[in-house]
Specification:
Layout lengths: L2 E10 L2 E7 L10 E2 L1 E4 L9 H14 L3 E13 L5 E11 L12 E7 L1 H6 L5 H14 L11
Parallel strand pairs: 1-6
Antiparallel strand pairs: 1-2, 1-4, 2-3, 2-7, 5-6
Length: about 150
């Protein structure tokens, strides 16, 4: 069984929104990350990925997003052995200035360019890959960033 996690690639004025995860987080404590979270069990429902992502972004950094566009998906295993499917969406930024609304989950909020993310030694490789793919979708170079071989 997998946990399903969603993340938002939020772009504004040439920069991407990132958080520094709280040291209290169970997975990737203190790491640079996009904003997001895991889907709750809902039974029968529609648009669960999109609704979850919009809710998580608002709960963690206090902003609203719209026009979610699929970027890519991946799978990983946490340090505790939990299997996770991660889905990234490009999100259109709508309102307010983001802030660490949920201090239990977010230690800091920052805006970084694609180049800054790629050159940052603290950026995990999966984050660099997700931002490269989100950049392609943002530029309209790929409708669907996933490449299936």
């Amino acid at each position: 069984m997998f946990i399903v996690n969603v993340e938002g690639a939020i772009h504004r004025n040439g920069k991407w929104l990132f958080i520094k995860r709280s040291e209290k987080e169970e997975h990737a404590a203190g790491a640079i990350s996009m904003v997001g979270g895991k889907c709750d069990m809902e039974g029968m429902s529609s648009d669960i990925l999109e609704r979850t992502l919009m809710r998580e972004i608002y709960e963690e950094v206090g902003i609203k997003v719209s026009n979610l566009t699929y970027v890519n998906s991946s799978a990983f295993v946490t340090d505790k052995g939990t299997h996770v499917i991660d889905i990234v969406f490009l999100c259109e930024y709508i309102t307010r200035e983001p802030y660490a609304k949920s201090e239990e989950e977010v230690a800091a909020v920052m805006w970084m360019s694609t180049q800054e993310v790629l050159e940052n030694p603290h950026s995990p490789n999966y984050l660099k890959e997700n931002i490269k793919r989100a950049e392609l979708v943002l530029q309209g170079k790929e409708r669907r960033a996933a490449v299936i071989e």
